[in-house]
Amino acid sequence: MEFTYESYIKLLKRLEDKGYQFAGYRSWEKKEKSVILRHDVDYSLQKAAEFSAVEREMGVPSTYFVLVSSDFYNLHSLKSKKYIRQIMDNGGEIGLHFDETQYDIRTEEELRDYLYREADILSGITGKETGAVSMHRPSEKFLSDNMEFGSIINSYSKIYFKDMKYLSDSRRRWREDVDEIVRQGAYRRLHILVHPFWYFTGFERDIKQTLKGAILNASLQYYDGLEDNFSSLGKEIRRDEIEELLRG
């Protein structure tokens, strides 16, 4: 499967053709043949909002897991809140992407405490209860312990990670042929993780092109942020000068 919006749309249509019904973490049991779509937003809320527009056109629900503790975006900023609202308006659920490496966690009780704190922060931003969590770079201990968090569904619990057919494009590489698995239609329950960061429209970019483009775009966004807070920034250094430096 290519990493383009067009290929993703084909995947969604193929799922429908094979009788799969799109579901969330609380509705899949009601479907005879279901698929849960999950998106981890590791680097860019902007890309996630763009991706959610594709799913809106298809009438497909999914869950976007966002980081509260991230070096790449600030959930409390007006711009980030705008992207979160776009995702929700496009039909996406917002879940917590929890990074346990941000804390000095020594016990399961401490992990739960930090996770609940972040879930409360996220709920304050979305205006809705945080209903599900996915782990960012989960430890082997977490994956093996099958932990539960009360009303917050753990997307890595056994039922979603083992009992269902779990497919992922992590690090821009499908471990299995997702197209062929869907085409065969042998599994009643699918749980598919797709990272919006890797996808573009029109043509496929390789991993180096994708990362280079993200770094350049981040630099320009930093400039735009400075311009909003630094009067007459253009008199000191123009945006096109930054673009020229980045191209060079």
Characterization of the model:
With 248 residues, the chain is of the alpha/beta class. It folds into 2 domains: 5-198, Alpha-Beta Barrel (TIM Barrel); 207-247. 46% of the residues lie in helices and 16% in strands. The protein contains 10 helices and 8 strands. It has helices at 5-17, 45-58, 78-89, 108-126, 140-145, 158-163, 178-184, 207-229, 233-236, 239-247, and strands spanning 21-23, 34-41, 62-67, 92-98, 132-135, 153-154, 165-168, 189-193. Strands 1, 2, 3, 4, 5, 6, 7 and 8 form an 8-stranded parallel beta sheet that branches. β7 (165-168), α7 and β8 (189-193) form a beta-alpha-beta unit. α8 (207-229) runs antiparallel to α10 (239-247). The longest helix is centred in the C-terminal third of the chain and has 23 residues, at 207-229. The radius of gyration is 19 Å and the shape is globular. It starts with a helix and ends with a helix. The model has no long low-confidence stretch (mean pLDDT 93).
Key descriptive features of the protein:
248 residues, alpha/beta, eight-stranded parallel sheet, 10 helices, globular
What's the gist of this structure?
The chain is of the alpha/beta class and 248 residues long. Helix content is 46%, strand content 16%. It has two domains: 194 residues, TIM Barrel; 41 residues.
Counting DSSP E segments of at least 2 residues, the number of strands comes to 8
Distance between the termini: 33 Å
Mean pLDDT: 93
Tally the structural domains: 2
Helix content: 40-55%
Q: What does the main sheet amount to?
A: 8 strands, parallel
User: How do the SSEs run, as a string of H and E?
Assistant: HEEHEHEHEHEHEHEHHH
Low-pLDDT residue spans: none
Q: How many separate helices?
A: 10
Radius of gyration of CA atoms, rounded to a whole number: 19 Å
In CATH terms, the superfamily of the largest domain is: Glycoside hydrolase/deacetylase
CATH class of the largest domain: Alpha Beta
**CATH architecture descriptor text of the largest domain:** Alpha-Beta Barrel
Strand percentage lies at 15-25%
Shape: globular
